[in-house]
Amino acid sequence: MDKKAAEVHSEMEAVVDKIVAAGGEQRMLIAAKYPVAWSTSKTRLVFEIYSLSYELTYSAGAH
Q: How high does pLDDT run on average in the chain?
């Protein structure tokens, strides 16, 4: 994993950690190819956390 990807993952991990610390849960590990993670709040709201916009994450040639 290059340095930029590692920085993105650490920022996403920090967001997920805040959700977990507030009583939520991490629903999946952060995906390596498409940096995305799902978490659920303690009130059962689902958060889909991306490192980039949806368009950049899934556009042709983005990876």
A: 77
